[in-house]
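hi!! sorry for the late reply, been swamped w classes. u asked for the two structures so here they r. pasted raw, havent cleaned anything up. first the sequence of the first protein and right below it the tokens
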Amino acid sequence: MSIYTRTGDEGKTSVIGGRVLKDDDRVEAYGTIDELNCFVGQAVSLTDPVGFADLRENLLQIQQELFDCGSDLAYVQVKNGPYKVGEELVGRLELWIDRYEAENPPLAKFILPGGTQLASILHVCRTVCRRAERRTVTLSQQREINSAVLKYLNRLSDFFFAVARTANARMEVQDIEYVRSGKVFRN
């Protein structure tokens, strides 16, 4: 089997139900989700299977769901039938966030992204997730999409923030506050 098809040589790509330009807003949205998935894979590779088995399992689940997000956004026309991403995934992310946040020290100010290698890549995941969310918002202004994908990406970026802090906390590395930050979080 050849991995190249030559069908994209003219600047178009296939989506579910047709072909579009490679810089189409739909491709930008699910392409950024694909980029995020790669960074999540890097985070998985940095998780210690002993001290971070729970996080590793969550991240692997998220990688599957990011493929589902991309798939849901790849439809040229509104899909007849259920999408892969639903509100239950958003609710589950909220439960995970609450569980990880319970491990984190109180937070009042903005923090600098960083700390351990794992926390640093999780902050990269957070920012790429926010970009994926922005690309999906742009797409949603032009075409009908599965709105649960937008909610999922919004909550997922919160998840990455929480677990980046947990990664530091478990490794006993203190988050560094942004020195000119006012108090922005309520304890």
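now the second protein. again sequence first, tokens right under
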Amino acid sequence: MLAHSHKKFIAREAAKLREGNRVRQIPPVDHGAERYLLHAGRRLLNLASNNYLGLAGHPALRQGAIEAVERYGTSSGASRLVSGNFALLDELEREMSSFKGQEDALVVGSGFAANLMILSSLADRHTVVFSDRLNHASIVDGIRLSGAKHVRYRHNDTDHLAKLLEAHAGAPRKVLVTDTVFSMDGDIADLATLVDLCQRHGVLSVVDEAHAAGIFGNGRGLAAQLGLADRVDIHMGTFSKGFGSYGAYIAGKAEIIGYLRNTGRPFIFSTALPPAVVGASLAAVRLVREADTLGRRLLDMARDVREYLGSLGLDVGSSRTAIIPVMLGGNEAALAARDALVERGVLVGAIRPPTVPQNTARLRISLRADLTDADLTLFKTAVAQMTERV
């Protein structure tokens, strides 16, 4: 039976969520990664997923998953350090280290787990971690778990960061961690300046390429596109977005990856990814490596869509990627705009606090490389009609 104190606590907090239009529910969606999904039985154009290259249903990935299941079954059965390893995982890590141009790579269960293990392994109470204020929640939680001093700098404000680095010049160890593409704003980090600051101040650099992998740098990420891959200490990315599969990778110098294998609790104490996922991820990396124009097509499409939305008077912030926010401010406005698009056959996310700061609720449009001209026309027509109503 639920304790009376917790019953009162849950009721009070749930009431606050309702009053602020912040109640979340799992949407009635089927086929949620496909270009068209079913929403309460209705077919909608899917601009809400992170399947940026449209690879989640690609025949090569399906075949990779099927072959892995036929060879290895459905589960890894244990942590990789016990008996949960199989040759396909080793092959994926070799492929990723080669693809990223790094000495070694480690595959882990998710991007969230990867950030937790990087930060909890490489930072402690004697460490200062500098973090962009809009970094992903997994980075924030990783810093908390580490016990390090968490120093946030204003979003993409490298002058502010430089002052903070000077103020903490005497710290025994220092780490800087940043998203390269920010998942709710679609803008990108000033990576060149960040890397320069890290090297000037003796700071370990960690980049989260979750929303850049597969898209920028011929699929290798933003650091690769900017020619900075060799100057970044740790590269993290996911297979669950541009690569259309699941899981994450950490790549870098062999000594760093080896240390993480031995200290990363989310890796050590988790059952390894199942064979089907690994087979699909390996197929995806090889596909992106060969068809490296997919990301460029997506970025060109995004530029056209941003210009169109701007012509309607909509605020798309500083987006430079396939993630395009439409800034609306209030929670009610964001929900009403989302519902208006659903009525016109398009699904996008309505993002509200605490995922984004107060009074910055927005639509989050997530474009994908497999959209057709007809899909884009449907979307543009729907948005134009939405602006007349909302």
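hope this helps!! also noticed smth abt the second:
The mean pLDDT is 96.
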